[in-house]
Design a protein that fits this description.
This protein folds into 2 domains: about 220 residues, 3-Layer(aba) Sandwich (Rossmann fold); about 110 residues, Nucleic acid-binding proteins (OB fold (Dihydrolipoamide Acetyltransferase, E2P), Beta Barrel), CATH 2.40.50. It has 8 helices and 19 strands. It is α+β, with helices and mostly antiparallel strands. Keywords: ATP-binding, Nucleotide-binding, Transport. This is Carbohydrate ABC transporter ATP-binding protein, CUT1 family.
Length: about 350
């Protein structure tokens, strides 16, 4: 069983603390994505697992071994980088087998491992080409093949698709996910793209400023974010946020405009009159209806084919709406909208924590 455990990991560069008491458990065969904005510490964590950086404090376990003091070559991991890092003078075959050659593996074993990886990745017909004769996607597959031939306990991916164009990234996401399912390997995948994380990972770790904000499945993070940061980071377009005060009847009066109607929220939430809160509504939860409870003015309409992304002004607040009605909403028009109050999330304004029902 190849589990990976980070126990109270910290990392400092001089007086700068970049990783702050991070603990993560990754099960055998699990595909886990580390996501967060630039500077959140996700690549630093990956490099510490790989042995390319030493933690300032805490313990890293791979399987049953504590690997803090082990060299990268002794950790039985393989890493795929953002840069393909292929040897330009070597063929695909030679690039993929080079690490095995350095390890002194017999030629027959090297050839068999390369042939197996090439078949998995669709590279069999390209084995004699040099990297300059390959497309970006093919080069990335060679980089993955170079990792596969080693049959490591853990695969580490550091933003491997960020150099590809949008269409190729979508295709490669599928390939990486199918590869993981076929190999049933423990995989840790770093990305700043939450769409990659949502579509590929079994579990997502959301990082911010060197700390873990939330760990959960893609569905859990989307439907039940624990705080405002996760709610705003996960989901495209971003969740709409409206600040307000809880009224005596349990609704939320928006700040900034006394003439705006109060927002309805789940009456089962433990809210008290006077609480300062933030109401979060996903763009796809809002619908335009003639008799809607809330007035808005359309600022911008962005047709997306099967839907339109509509930006509206609701008093001082800007709302994004995913409109799938296929009816034309004109820029500058006055509209009315509504939403299901049970699907609106409420957060404590000071702490950012989501308000949840008791029990």
């Amino acid at each position: 069983m190849t589990q990976v455990k980070l126990e109270h990991i910290t990392k400092s560069f001089g007086s700068v603390h970049v990783i702050k008491d991070v603990s993560i458990g990754i099960a055998d065969g699990e595909f886990v994505a580390l996501v967060g904005p630039s500077g959140s510490g996700k690549s630093t964590i990956l490099r510490m697992i790989a042995g390319l950086e030493d933690p300032t404090g805490g313990i890293i376990r791979i399987g049953e071994r504590v690997v803090n003091d082990l060299m990268p070559k002794d950790r039985d991991i393989a890493m795929v980088f953002q840069s393909y890092a292929l040897y330009p003078h070597m063929s695909v075959r030679e690039n993929m087998s080079f690490s095995l050659e350095l390890a002194g593996r017999p030629k027959a074993e090297r050839d068999a491992a390369v042939a197996e990886a090439a078949e998995i990745l669709g590279l069999t017909d390209l084995l004699d080409r040099k990297p300059k004769a390959l497309s970006g996607g093919q080069r990335q597959r060679v980089a993955m093949g170079r990792a596969i031939v080693r049959k490591p306990e853990v695969f580490l991916f550091d933003e491997p698709l960020s150099n590809l164009d949008a269409k190729l990234r979508t295709a490669m996401r599928k390939e990486v996910k199918l590869l993981h399912q076929r190999l049933a390997s423990t995989s840790i995948y770093v990305t700043h793209d939450q769409t990659e994380a949502m579509t590929m990972a079994d579990k997502i770790v959301v990082l911010n400023d060197g700390m873990v904000e939330q760990i959960g499945s893609p569905t859990e993070l989307y439907t039940a974010p624990e705080n405002l940061f996760v709610a705003g980071f996960i989901g495209t377009p971003q969740m709409n946020f409206i600040e307000g005060m809880v009224s005596a009847d349990g609704t939320v009066r928006p700040d900034g405009n006394a003439h705006l109607p109060s927002l309805r929220v789940d009456p089962g939430l433990p809210l008290a009159a006077g609480d300062a809160v933030v109401v979060g509504i996903r763009p796809e939860r809002i619908r335009f209806v003639p008799d809607g409870a809330y007035p808005a003015n359309v600022e911008l309409v962005e047709p997306m084919g099967s839907e339109a992304l509509v930006t509206c002004n609701f008093g001082p607040y800007e709302l994004r709406v995913q409109d799938r009605s296929m009816e034309t909403v004109a820029q500058g028009a006055d509209v009315r909208f509504d939403y299901d109050p049970v699907l609106a999330l409420v957060f404590v304004r000071d702490s950012g924590k989501r308000v949840v029902k008791a029990g």
